[in-house]
Amino acid sequence: MKTLLSDEAAQAAAAEPAGEVLLVRGGRPLRGRVTVTGAKNLATKAMVASLLGDSPSTLRDVPQISDVRVVRSLLEVHGVKVTDGAEPGSLVLDPTDAVSAHMEEIDAHAGASRIPILFCGPLLHLLGEAFIPDLGGCRIGDRPINFHLDALRQFGAVVEKLPTGIRLSAPEGLHGANIELPYPSVGATEQVLLTAVRAAGVTELRGAAIEPEIMDLIAVLQKMGAIISYEPNRVILIEGVDALTGYDHRCIFDRNEAASWASAALATDGDIFVEGAKQQEMLTFLNIYRKAGGWFDVREDGIQFRRGGPLKPVIVETDVHPGFMTDWQQPLIVALTQAEGESVVHETVYENRFGFTDALNKMGASIVVHRDGLDAPYRRVPRRALEQAAVVTGPTPLHGADVVVPDLRGGYSHLIAALAADGESTVRGVGILSRGYEKLFTKLSALGADFDIVG
Ligand code: EPU
After folding, report:
1. For this structure, is 120 an active site residue?
2. For the segment 390-424, what is each residue's pLDDT rounded down to a tens digit?
3. Are residues 235 and 279 in the same domain?
4. What are the pLDDT digits (tens) for 340-361?
5. Gap from CA of 432 to ligand 1 centroid (Å)
6. Which class for 163: exposed (0-12), middle (13-18), buried (19 or more C-beta within 10 A)?
7. Is 312 annotated as a binding residue?
8. What are the binding positions for phosphoenolpyruvate in this chain (predicted)?
9. Same domain for 393 and 432?
10. Exposed, middle or buried by CB within 10 Å (0-12, 13-18, 19+), for 233?
11. Per-residue pLDDT reduced to its tens digit, 46-78
12. Measured in angstroms, how far is the CA atom of residue 54 from the centroid of ligand 1?
């Protein structure tokens, strides 16, 4: 595989120590200031969008996380020249020499991330064909790609499943389509946007996801020359155009990172100012935060978070935007173990996102995961015989334990539980956290966390 980092980026990344196993000495509140990065869930998609332009793009506030490195490397495999921009944290992506890549090189990225699926539309427009390796990402459910493939077929793509991945071709080019998503999937909405902007004719997408990161991707595409309008009731209209140019764009802030730090302040009884966090994109989170006994102060340059008194139990249902994000529940649950009474967290986006609670129970929490969540009419994920609702009874003192990180958000929650707990914890497999949190160890140290990298 090619080198994932340029010299400059490698030096910057080197400032963050690497490690898989942490020895955490808990019981210390996290206090201080952190700066939130650009959103993982926008940056990677905007990088893919650069393939659609006929001139270089500049993306600013790109987080230094492994998902970004995987996409960078895949773009390079396809002949896109990626260099660090003059502004720290910016990338220049030049697609003018993009070429068809060798399958072995693409295959080297198999299982590394879910973003490669979004290369389909741009590569079909550019090269008439695409090969997408088996996808990775967090193991939090089945994570099928049927919505993506159905939509691509409606645009006129021919999809062939191979043992190692998926080959797509568009012998007659791609045309606009009328697409209705069965569920407002973030990825499938992005797939449609990235494909429709250059397809011949108009595309009407119904049942679209409307997350702020998707609106930011629409802004990127509009800068490139796309014509996209957003109608009420999750309808997006895209008028295909013949050519797009490069863009210059600053990534929206990472709402998930901001919410993670907010919950860390709550769980450890600390006080954290999250520079760069904005209120509008976090309204739903802030409501629940307040109901759970959290206090926040929205300022010009960020939001300060801490407890406002004793923590209170809440009932939360994860949902697509503008609901409470599925990525926000894991760190919040750590705080809810310290609330007086019974909290209920319904997970309606993924069918298997409570695996991380086992480790919290090992640390003294009382969390029971029930297979049945909300009644069927309210559930966006069809009923499956899997976990759906977590009942958290508190307060229960947390104590140190030896735990293994299961996935990105669950792993973050293990880390803050260890920081909140009395005594020492060993947290294994923390490397996965670099998928979504830039310079996590550096930021934790700056907030006063007491830990050593021991493996
Ligand atoms: N789904 C299908 N078929 C599809 C696509 C999705 O059944 O073809 C189902 C999924 O299995 C899931 C639900 O639809 O049950 C939602 O999936 P969605 O497509 O919305 O999620 P995604 O695009 O794969 C992104 C984020 C996730 C975030 C979700 C929901 C990226 C790279 N990932 O995933 O982020 O949880 O949207 O907001 O943008 C994370 O940051 O840790 C993370 C997992």
Report:
1. no
2. 999 999 999 999 999 999 999 999 999 999 999 99
3. no
4. 999 999 998 888 889 999 999 9
5. 18
6. exposed
7. no
8. 40-41
9. yes
10. exposed
11. 999 999 999 999 999 999 999 999 999 999 988
12. 30
> Does residue 437 share a domain with residue 349?
yes
d(CA 137, CA 143): 9
Residue 367: enclosing H or E segment and its boundaries? Answer: strand 366-370
Residue whose tokens read 């029930």:
370
State how far the Cα of 414 lies from the Cα of 425, in Å rounded to an integer.
10
The DSSP-derived string for 380-439 is SSPP-SS--EEEEEE----B--EEE--SHHHHHHHHHHHHHSBSEEEEE-GGGGGGT-TT
Q: Are residues 81 and 191 in the same domain?
A: yes
Top mutation candidate among 71, 186, 216 for ligand 1, by most atoms within 8 Å of CB = 186
Of the pLDDT bands very low, low, confident and very high (cuts 50, 70, 90), residue 140 is low
160 and 204 belong to one structural domain: yes
Q: Which residues line ligand 1 (CB under 6 A)?
A: 40-41, 114, 138, 141-148, 183, 185-188, 209, 256, 325-327, 349-350, 381, 408-409, 436
Q: Is residue 2 part of a domain?
A: no
Q: Which helix (H) or strand (E) holds 446?
A: helix 440-446
